[in-house]
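User: Can you predict the 3D structure of Acetate--CoA ligase? Sequence below.
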Amino acid sequence: MAESFAVKLEERCYLPDPRCRANARVPDYAREYSEFVRDPEAFWDRIAQELEWYGPWERVREWNYPYAKWFVSAKLNITTNCLDRHVAGPRRDKPAIIWRGEEGEERTYTYGELHREVMRFANGLRSLGVEKGDRVCIYMPLVPELVVAMLACARIGAVHSVVFGGFGADALAMRINDADAKILITADVGYRRGKTIPLREIAKEAVSQTPSIERVVVLRREEPAVEIDPALEVDYASLTAKAAPDCPAEVMDAEDPLFILYTSGSTGAPKGIVHTCGGYAVGTYYTTKCVFDVREDDVYWCTADPGWITGHSYVVYGPLAVGTTVVITEGTPDYPDPGAYWRLVEDLGVTIFYTAPTAIRMFMRYGDEWPAKYDLSTLRVLGSVGEPLNPEAFEWYYHRIGGGQCPIVDTWWQTETGMHMVTTMIGEPMKPGFAGKPIPGAVVDVVDKSGNPVPPGTGGFLVIREPWPSMMRTVHGNDERYCKYWNTIPGCYTAGDLAVKDEDGYIMIIGRADDLIIVAGHNIGTAEVESALVSHEAVAEAAVIGKPDPLKGNVIKAFVTLRVGVSPSDDLTEDLAHHVKKSLGPVAVPAEIEYMDRLPKTRSGKIMRRVLKARELGMDPGDISTLEE
Ligand code: WTA
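Assistant: Sure. Here are the predicted structure tokens for Acetate--CoA ligase:
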């Protein structure tokens, strides 16, 4: 790990409209935070009371470093919180999900309808032999059935593992095998920019490498419907149609696993991050309600795909637990034109909008005229997540989308944290470039290697000091990898990000400290891309770095040495790109491939990516005493 370093801080600051502070769910951040610090257990106890439980907790938390339990011995099912309790009250006919397809087609599910769909599909899964604790893999496009599938698993206590529909067959197979999933749920196709993505074909290829999969449920969208293979596949619609309409929720212990979600690791294999039922429900409920300040008549749109944690926590579980109306779309921001998102905001009267900096920078590039064509005056709160929101993008978002009226919550968190950890709560002064302060409920700091806080203006490692309800409980099948998060810096959870604080305690995220590359908000591990490249017959060795990019934050650059007898060519470059795409999916394809005679290595044979990166950026490579020659 690097030593601390000095950082120049921006000095801009926006004072919010005092009205938005007075009306906010958390009207006084400092007071709420000190209430949390005074008694963390009482703080979370109060929040948990707002949810529905089958049985009470004996203790709010049990902290056995580095393992935590929350709401010890309490019983619940997250879906009764997301569905039943709304249906029993005045939200039965309130839209829960409004979906829009690429060509403008629309489907709405009220809470009552979503509840019924979930129960039917849950019974369908049961009829396939799925039981509490079984793993179910979901590989679907962004359609309402994806949300139904996740909730149906949760309903019967099956552990879902959603794999983003942009991943390739090998990436999917690796995740299915790691989780030992019994059932795969997919669709014939996804639609993207007027083209179809053959999800079922990719799934078939993956399943040929996954002995644990017993059945594949296929949602058929194309007409005429594709024929399915009765030995392996089950039709989604007939499974649901045949199923009984009523499905009582499985009583889950607060510490039973709810889902596994894979994130890139700094070594080859992705990590299956495990989240549990109780703490995750409480953490996502609280942050959705308070960070976004959700009101009864809000129309809430988080643009993330449920294939990522943002979609789990802030498309599905948090917003439905709060009982808001959630917008989802299969469409992309600039198809059929760059006004697509703003048209949707206008048409549906979106009030809360949560997206990624990479999308904001793309909109900036298309120009102000696109948002200007639409009525965006319903917007009330803007959010950002996934990578640093640079000050220029902040300014543009604030003025062009928010009309200078909407607070921006730049939320820092991770797959591992499950919920927001750092942001600027509504009503607090906003500083472009800074995510903000720890949310009430989180103890976040910037420290040196030994865990000592660094002074303002000095960069260091972003850490979390105390356990929090929605923290990951382990890495699936690999406790050792879990423990590494907590024993790298003494006494702290190490997030793997570099950050800096200012005099007021505002935190600016600088970027990753490890071998992860964040491309357009997606986490990509260097090792995964390297091993995909090396699996090509022409490649001897590969090293991958992240290269700063004005639009995507980072792009992947690969350095490749070829096997004897193979020479570089444009055809080969194209072939390598295709090879990575097929194996890992389009998100992991290098933007640039450079051929080299040899890669810089340490004397012990480790590739020095840092040297390649420094050379690429024209920077000093730092200590190269271990370099081979
Ligand atoms: C980065 C996404 C700066 C960070 C929720 C983190 C951010 C990684 C922000 C986790 C933000 C996320 N500002 N960087 N507001 N939010 N990151 O697991 O490097 O997909 O460690 O979770 O994204 O990515 P993940």
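The pocket of WTA is lined by residues 263, 308-310, 385-388, 410-415, 435, 495-497, 509, 512, 518, 523 (CB under 6 Å). The radius of gyration is 24 Å.
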